[in-house]
Design goal:
alpha/beta, Rossmann fold, N-(1-d-carboxylethyl)-l-norvaline Dehydrogenase, domain 2, 2 domains, 4-stranded mixed beta sheet, 12 strands, binds ketopantoate, NADP, 6PGD_dom2, NADP binding
Length: 299
């Protein structure tokens, strides 16, 4: 019998991985946010659904007594501390933990708070969305890269991939940085200008702002010794905007649904690092402030 995976953060990527672990033969438990969500899970016949396939998993609230030996964290980066703190007492000292999130900052926080755990960080280009709380749609097949910032753990190699594409990454820190750089370039602008990703490259004013953001992000990356892409960041960001032209970025979706965005773990993270390194990032500061204001105004 394989060891159970607990999933903290039953959103689209958490549910996709719940199906994937279940497909690989792991027992799976979703750690749900509240009683209301647990009741919805019971009403949904205690299963996840993906492409008409049902995956029977378990679900519970954070106050269940079982020890957690294997944990996948897929909460929004901004929710990480509160979510982890609610189950901290249940996490085994030597637990295997995978942190699969957008943005940066929360990965370090988990690694620092669980020094004896075997922590891996991951980044994915899989696209998924929920048609209801427990039905996930795998909209874009991508790659999940997984690695550890400190040690090589054999368990990562032995994890398997199921129906997803999973690659071992020996420089996951740089991979997360590349994703951060793209998110800094696209997400705040689309959220503020209320546009699809593709509009950024068709509007000269938006493009000028994007280029300025990119130059600043490159300066911070250089200051912390990260090599981003072969070519300039603006070229890569434009390419992603073109490839995802019809997408509404995750930040715009959060704003439209009055949810907290991940700005603090994207542009906020970049600005904090810039300050610590003495790098000037006025354009990123400007958009950090504007998104914070947008969040405040939407309550
Ligand atoms: O990752 C994304 C996001 O929306 O968060 C991009 C790459 C911008 C695609 O929409």
């Amino acid at each position: 019998m394989k060891n159970r995976w607990y999933i903290l953060g039953a959103g689209s990527i958490g549910n996709l991985w719940g199906c994937n672990f279940s497909y690989m033969g792991y027992p799976v438990t979703l750690v749900l946010r509240n009683q209301d969500k647990l009741e919805k899970f019971h009403a949904a016949e205690q299963r996840l659904k993906l492409s008409e396939q049902l995956y029977f998993v378990d679900a519970e609230l954070s106050d269940s007594p079982e020890t957690i030996n294997q944990l996948l964290v897929t909460t929004k980066s901004t929710d990480t501390k509160a979510a982890i703190n609610s189950i901290k007492h249940r996490i085994a000292e030597d637990a295997k933990i995978i942190v699969l999130q957008n943005g940066m900052g929360s990965q370090d926080w988990i690694s620092d708070n669980f020094p004896s755990a075997k922590v891996a960080w991951a980044s994915t280009t899989d696209g998924a969305w929920l048609s209801d709380d427990f039905t996930v749609n795998h909209a874009g097949k991508g790659i999940t890269r997984i690695g550890s910032p400190t040690n090589i753990y054999p368990w990562i190699e032995q994890l398997g991939c199921g129906f997803l594409t999973v690659e071992l990454d020996d420089d996951i820190h740089a991979t997360l940085w590349r994703k951060l750089a793209i998110n800094c370039s696209i997400n705040p602008l689309t959220a503020l200008f209320n546009c699809q990703n593709g509009e950024l490259i068709n509007n000269p004013d938006y493009l000028t702002e994007m280029a300025s953001i990119c130059r600043e992000v490159e300066s911070v990356a250089t200051a912390v010794g990260i090599e981003l892409f072969d070519g300039p960041l603006i070229e890569n960001a434009c390419q992603v905007a073109e490839l995802t032209a019809k997408n509404y970025s995750s930040m715009l979706q959060d704003i439209r649904q009055n949810r907290q965005t991940e700005i603090e773990n994207i542009t906020g993270y970049l600005c904090r690092l810039a300050e610590a390194k003495g790098v000037s990032v006025p354009t990123n500061q400007k958009y950090l402030k504007k998104i914070r204001e947008l969040e405040d105004n939407s309550g």
